[in-house]
């Protein structure tokens, strides 16, 4: 039996990109999927692509409305009678320089990517502690390992997730609760389309880095393998992930290389 068979899995950001592909591939592995994002109609379209559709549940969720999380989680427990894995994948990217980014945009990105993220984890954590088993998977980014052009608030929010979830990993290991931090690089998803500009408007462009990135299906295969093996952290991408190792072992070379990379 594979790791995900008959597991109840909640995926945020399930309406597109990595979240959508996770839902499709995990449904093929026999998991019960709870799909969450803001747009119910888009989630219904994802559901149509999945195996065993009657096993799954669509629950619209807005990461800025954290007061709704306990009620939404109770809906999952009421349907399935248990809970196993949270893919905390929802989030918002950025395409603006520091000097042109309003504080409102800085706060919005942090509210969604960090506070909304950890609030959802806190919502399910009490249940996982009670049953003494579970798995929390959080989507960070290669930008969570170093800063990059036009990503100041986004990178900061992802850096924050690393500190938080590394602490959680240490605290909850004794309760048989696993934590996996995913660090995707350039993946072919529409994340740049909804990224915020400095004034709060959507970027509405498919960046070259995303258009030429690793296929999302390949990325998700690697994610599923890492989670199944209970990896604590995994870098996923093409050549760009080597920058993490270069920064660690050859920092002077890293800064020479990174300043010549294209922001989009």
Describe this structure in words.
The chain has about 260 residues and is an alpha/beta fold. It has a single domain (about 10-240), classed as NAD(P)-binding Rossmann-like Domain (Rossmann fold, 3-Layer(aba) Sandwich). About 45% of the residues lie in helices and about 15% in strands. It contains 9 helices and 9 strands. The strands form 2 sheets. Strands 3-2-1-4-5-6-9 form a 7-stranded parallel β-sheet, sandwiched between helices. A two-stranded parallel sheet has the order 7-8.
CATH class: Alpha Beta
Count of helical regions: 9
Strand content: 5-15%
The SSE string, one letter per element, is EHEHEHEHEHEEHEHEHH
Strand order of the largest sheet: 3-2-1-4-5-6-9
Ends: how far apart?
Answer: 42 Å
The CATH architecture would be 3-Layer(aba) Sandwich
Whole-number total of structural domains: 1
Q: How many distinct beta strands?
A: 9
Helix content: 40-55%
Helix and strand content put the structural class at alpha/beta
Question: Could you name the ranges where pLDDT drops below 50 across 5 or more consecutive residues?
Answer: none
Kindly identify the CATH topology. Rossmann fold
Shape: globular
SSE diagram, text form:
Blueprint: E1 8-12, H1 17-28, E2 32-36, H2 40-47, E3 57-58, H3 69-80, E4 85-88, H4 103-131, E5 134-139, H5 152-172, E6 177-184, E7 187-188, H6 208-211, E8 214-215, H7 216-228, E9 233-236, H8 242-249, H9 251-258
Parallel strand pairs: 1-2, 1-4, 2-3, 4-5, 5-6, 6-9, 7-8
Helix pairs in contact: 1-7, 4-5, 8-9
């Amino acid at each position: 039996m594979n790791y995900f068979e008959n597991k109840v899995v909640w995926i945020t950001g399930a309406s597109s990109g990595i979240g959508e592909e996770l839902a499709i591939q995990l449904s093929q592995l026999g998991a019960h999927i709870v799909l969450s994002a803001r747009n119910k109609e888009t989630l219904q379209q994802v559901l149509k692509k999945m195996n065993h559709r009657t096993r799954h549940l669509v629950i619209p969720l807005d990461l800025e409305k954290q007061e709704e999380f306990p009620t939404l989680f109770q809906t999952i427990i009421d349907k399935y009678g248990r809970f196993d894995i949270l893919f905390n994948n929802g989030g918002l990217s950025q395409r603006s320089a520091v000097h042109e980014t309003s504080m409102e945009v800085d706060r919005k990105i942090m509210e969604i990517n960090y506070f909304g993220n950890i609030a959802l984890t806190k919502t399910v954590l009490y249940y996982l502690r009670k049953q003494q088993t579970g798995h929390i998977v959080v989507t960070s980014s290669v930008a969570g390992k170093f800063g990059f052009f036009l990503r100041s608030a986004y990178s900061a929010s992802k850096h924050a997730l690393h500190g938080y979830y590394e602490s959680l990993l240490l605290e909850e290991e004794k309760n048989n609760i696993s934590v996996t931090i995913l660090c995707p690089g350039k993946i072919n998803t529409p994340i740049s389309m909804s990224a915020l500009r400095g004034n709060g408007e959507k970027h509405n462009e498919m960046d070259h880095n995303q258009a030429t990135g690793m296929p999302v299906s390949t990325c998700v295969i690697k994610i599923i393998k890492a989670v199944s093996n209970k990896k604590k952290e995994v870098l996923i991408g093409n050549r760009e992930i080597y920058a993490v190792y270069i920064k660690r072992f050859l920092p002077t070379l890293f800064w020479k290389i990174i300043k010549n990379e294209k922001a989009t």
